[in-house]
């Protein structure tokens, strides 16, 4: 029997026009964008569909935008008869997984992630922090590099372990720049600055986690209806208390994406469906294990391609 995981991308996947074809052609898709606007009290949908890109990239806009598109796509898949056995998301994407699992309502989730973005921006205003992808370096060696730079006075740490040969670092702008140079000197193939507005998943974000904790205390969480694999420990989040701790800790902790994908594969998942704009997570999954199937849904053509492929699957047998 085919086992399916819905996976939801994090910041960096946002793009002007995200979800536009679905929104223009289907009232139920348009309703997601309208409900997001209503919950937030401003026209997020206008930024998503028309930009400008600089505004959409700001963390407090990118986070609810990606959540909205990802959940909208996932619900289109469900309506077409494609239901997940598991869910997971990269960083911000974890909230999309929790919505699909019935832990959070969409309206609560879009409100929380907007506030999450505001708290992150308050912790480290845009431009003062940075992130970079380090390619072709072992984790332990990169840890040594970041620790040396941090001890010397410029905070930087490992933020995402994405797949073999791709690890993301995060910290102050100076710390990331110095660690990128040092990593290449130590043998890394490349160091690529990321287009993000803050040093996510670093200790610099810890002040925002306490504000997020207070916000989550006012939100009703329910037990997951399908298993969700969490970012922090790459394990199944089984109850509301564990989920709340996960979401607070996740803000400043390393995203264990490679381990999360390996856990899903160990549980029998053989089809990964990326819900939302871009193909970033699908590419990472393939680098982790080429034997599994990966599909992305972001427009009508990609949805049709997935539905055609699904004819070969044995679903919910």
Main β sheet profile: 4 strands, parallel
- Number of contiguous helices: 14
Encode the helix/strand succession as letters: EHHHHHEHHEHEEHEHHHEHEH
Uncertain stretches of 5 or more adjacent residues: none
Average pLDDT over all residues: 95
First CA to last CA: what distance? 6 Å
Task: Kindly name the structural category.
Answer: alpha/beta
User: Beta-strand level of the residues, as a percent range?
Assistant: 5-15%
The largest beta-sheet arranges its strands as 2-1-7-8
Rg result: 19 Å
Query: Helix content range of the residues, please?
Result: 40-55%
Question: How many beta-strand segments?
Answer: 8
Task: Write a structural description.
It is a single chain. The chain is α/β, with parallel strands linked by helices. It is 50% helix and 14% strand. It has 14 helices and eight strands. The protein has a four-stranded parallel sheet, sandwiched between helices. A four-stranded antiparallel sheet has the order 4-5-3-6. The mean pLDDT is 95.
SSE blueprint:
Blueprint: E1 4-8, H1 20-25, H2 27-40, H3 44-50, H4 53-57, H5 59-79, E2 86-89, H6 93-100, H7 106-123, E3 129-135, H8 139-151, E4 156-163, E5 166-172, H9 173-185, E6 190-193, H10 206-217, H11 240-250, H12 257-266, E7 271-275, H13 280-288, E8 293-297, H14 300-309
Parallel strand pairs: 1-2, 1-7, 7-8
Antiparallel strand pairs: 3-5, 3-6, 4-5
Helix pairs in contact: 2-5, 2-7, 5-6, 5-7, 7-10, 8-9, 10-11
């Amino acid at each position: 029997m085919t086992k399916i995981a819905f996976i939801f991308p994090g910041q960096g996947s946002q793009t002007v026009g995200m979800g536009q074809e679905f929104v223009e052609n289907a009232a139920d898709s348009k309703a997601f964008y309208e409900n997001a606007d209503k919950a937030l009290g401003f026209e997020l949908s206008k930024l998503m569909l028309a930009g400008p890109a600089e505004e959409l990239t700001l963390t407090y806009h990118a986070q609810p935008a990606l959540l909205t598109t990802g959940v909208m796509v996932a619900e289109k898949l469900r309506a077409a008869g494609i239901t997940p056995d598991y869910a997971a998301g990269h960083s911000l994407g974890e909230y999309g997984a929790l919505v699909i699992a019935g832990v959070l309502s969409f309206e609560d989730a879009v409100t929380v992630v907007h506030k999450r973005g505001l708290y992150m921006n308050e912790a480290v205003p845009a431009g003062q922090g940075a992130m970079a992808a380090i390619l072709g370096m072992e984790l332990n060696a990169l840890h040594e590099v970041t620790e040396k730079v941090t001890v010397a006075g410029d905070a930087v740490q490992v933020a995402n372990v994405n797949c073999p040969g791709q690890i993301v670092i995060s910290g102050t702008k100076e710390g990331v720049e110095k660690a990128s140079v040092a990593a290449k000197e130590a043998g890394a193939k490349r160091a690529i600055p990321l287009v993000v507005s803050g040093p996510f998943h670093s200790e610099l974000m810890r002040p925002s986690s306490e504000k997020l904790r207070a916000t989550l205390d006012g939100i009703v969480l329910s037990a997951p209806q399908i298993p969700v694999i969490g970012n922090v420990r790459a394990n199944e989040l089984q109850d509301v208390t564990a989920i709340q701790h996960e979401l607070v800790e996740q803000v400043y902790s390393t995203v264990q994406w490679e381990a999360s994908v390996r856990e899903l594969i160990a549980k029998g998942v053989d089809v990964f469906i990326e819900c939302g704009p871009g193909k970033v997570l699908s590419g990472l999954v393939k680098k982790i294990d080429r034997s599994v199937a990966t599909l992305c849904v972001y427009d009508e053509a990609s949805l049709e391609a997935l539905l055609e492929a699904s004819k070969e699957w044995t679903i919910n047998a």
